[in-house]
Specification:
The complex is a heterodimer of chains A (about 120) and B (about 750). Chain A is an alpha/beta fold and about 120 residues long. Helices cover about 40% and strands about 20% of the residues of chain A. Chain A has a single domain, classed as Response regulator (Rossmann fold), CATH 3.40.50. Chain B has 16 helices and 21 strands. Chain B has about 750 residues and is α+β, with helices and mostly antiparallel strands. The chains are: A alpha/beta (about 120), B alpha+beta (about 750). Chains A and B meet through helix 1 of A and helix 12 and helix 13 of B.
Chain lengths: ~120, ~750
Amino acid sequence: MRVLVVEDNPVNMKLITLVLKKHGHEPLFATCGEEGVEKAASEHPDIILMDILLPDIDGLEATRRIRNIGTMKDTPIIAITSYAMAGDREKILEAGCNGYFEKPINPLTIMDEIEKIIQRGRP
Amino acid sequence: MKYIPRSDSLKAKSILLIIIIVTVCISASALIASHLVHEQMTANYDNNKETTVESLSISLAPMLELYDYKLVERTITSTLEFDSVAYITVRDESGTLIRTSAKEDIPVESLDVVNVDIIGNEGLIGSLEIGFSNARINEHIRRTISALIFGLMGFFILAGVALYILVSRHIVEPLETFTKTIEGYSPGNISDRVKINRNDDIGALAASFNRMAENLEQADDKTQIALQKLKELEFIINQSQVIAFLWRNAEGWPVEFVSENIKQFGYTPQDFIDGDIAYTDIIHSDDMERVGNEVDMYSEQGITEFRQEYRIITKSGDIRWTDDVTWIRRDQNGNVTHYQGIVFDITERKRAEENLRDSEMKYSTLVEKGNDGIIIIQDGILKYVNSVMCEIAGFTKEEIVGKPFLDYVSLEYRDIVMERYEKRMMGNDVPNRYEIGIISKNGQTTPVEINATLIEYDDKPADMAIIRDNTEQKQIKDEMQKLNAELELRISERTADLQNNQQALVNVVEDLNVTTEELQNANKRLQELDRLKSMFIARTSHELRTPLNSIIGFTSILLEGWSGELNPEQTEQLEMVHTSGKHLLNLINDVIDISKIEAGKLDVFISEFKLREVMDEAVSVVRNDIDEKGLTLTVEVEDITLISDRRRLLQSILNLLSNAVKFTEKGNISIQTKSINSNINISVTDSGIGVKQEDIPKLFTPFVRLESPLTDRTSGTGLGLYLTKKLVMEALGGAVDVISEYGKGSTFTLIIPLKMEAQK
């Protein structure tokens, strides 16, 4: 599968890339919200992992814009949140995300979590 | 309906009867006839025999005298031709055979032999013997009888057929026609008529029958019309609010009929008809005695119709006022058998009446108990006077009502009053309010103020005047002016005092304003600081956590061997990095949690989970440390499902557990759970250093670490228990309990509800 990772921190990006490749997926990169939206529109990835704290528009806004792209209505978008954001669950789901998981990213379990969220479908 | 003939039909019966009659007739007549004919013929033959013998003997006598034997022979031969004669023998007087002749085909038995002497002129000259054949005679008789019987049979059968035809035409067929017609009838359809046009009895019967059918048909039509009318009547009753009742005069007034619209009270007619509910059951208990007494009274007095108002309890328990018009039904002896009546719901009317009474009361209070006199004048006459007016004028109502009003107006005002009154009555605009004098009973003139208005009274225009006694008003005015003057004086004195005080107050307020402004500024600065603090914590935690994420993440990958094999030494060191990273992350998370709890912004996520799984997870985190310290761990967990905030519970248990490990050097740590009612107690007991009794309250104070031999050697922020207590209270809705003995060990217990209600 082609997975678009929207993440501004290069170290985290590297970590996620390692995990995705390990599981045989193809990672696509975007380092800010605007770029994330553009890549989503042009590349039509199968899954999007969306960091919420981004330098330009935040992940919620980026998700809303992606949802407005005709072909991206049902593509799973999974938010990556910081611990402090845990309470903003409603906001995240309202913006159009299928689910979210919290940092720190555990490279050993992240794929299972993504799988679980996709299977559960959008609330 | 098709007419099907039956085996037991009249037709079959008549045929059988005729056959029986014919058979009996034939048998009887045959019996009688054969008997008579036989007798008669036998007698005839006997007679014939003698006649034959005698006549032959007489005719033979001369022949024998002359010895003309040839003639004898001819004679006997001709005689032999008689059917019954078998043989003839003639002898002389000596018995010598002269001539004999016989039929050859006649049997010799059963012969009837007759001997007779032949007498001549000189006496006996011979004898004659004739043998008659009985068989022949009998044969002859039988034939005759047979012929007769056949004849009779033929006759009777013909007679039977004729009889059948007669019966059939006159009785059976008309009856069948009747049967067919009647069987073709059905309820509501008796339009067929019997089609028999004859002048006999059957014809008359048919005509009568047809008339009867016609009458019935007309009667049926009338019944239908009557039924239709009855239905209409029922519909009208049921569409109305009037409920029709028929009560029997017996205990409880059993209902024999009630219209369907009893449903407006929630009951069905069947409730009453079946006797499930007696009529007396639905009458309000406060009204029952009165209603019963009244009914008894009217019944005894011989009255036929009476009317009652009482309350009925509906099925749902509401109270409805009803108006019941009842007729009493009596038998010939005047005994009451039934009561019939219509019951009408008058609750609304009652309510309206009550309201009307209330408002009338209010108005009459207003009019009668006010301070103003009120009069109504119509056609120059006082029509109404209230009590206040009576007091002013000194008359009673009886004395004054009906008198010309002008009589009570003092002379100098009469002209103007009359003029204005007339103009007002004509609808002209005249001053309404003016002062006049009225003449009281004692002859004195009282100054009053009048306020007149044109009104409708008893459907005619009238003048209503409100009259105020000016004498009293003037007195009051004077008194009030005096009071006012006093008051003004006092006020001016007080005002001076107040002005002084006010100046003092103004000064204080000015001071206060300055202080308030300072406070507001301070508050603003504080709010700004608080915002900055929150922002700082958020920023800091994010900045701290980002590098930690990579430390924890990459060490995990390295430890998994994704980037190549590690030797044991490397693995051990990487594990230390990994553990420290996680520890640091926990510390940061604690700080964030506390800042959230203190800001009242902690979010609670309730889910269903197994306690054992949470405990296993908590134990797995501290397992290494326990093993390293050489401690033993006993875990007794109930298999129980909780509905709570799993993450916060795990965090709390983990906090207690890591504390226990931290402050225990040797011995045992045990975890025990016990559900009590709707709570679960989760206890962590250690054999560690314990806490002094006086230090227990300090345990839950933030950033306070108790002095102990281990303080220097153990790491800690002093936040753990403070956060745990806060979490248990805020997120889990529970409490933390501590029992400790200094130097022996401690037991920390979480008491939390099994099922947590979602909070707003």
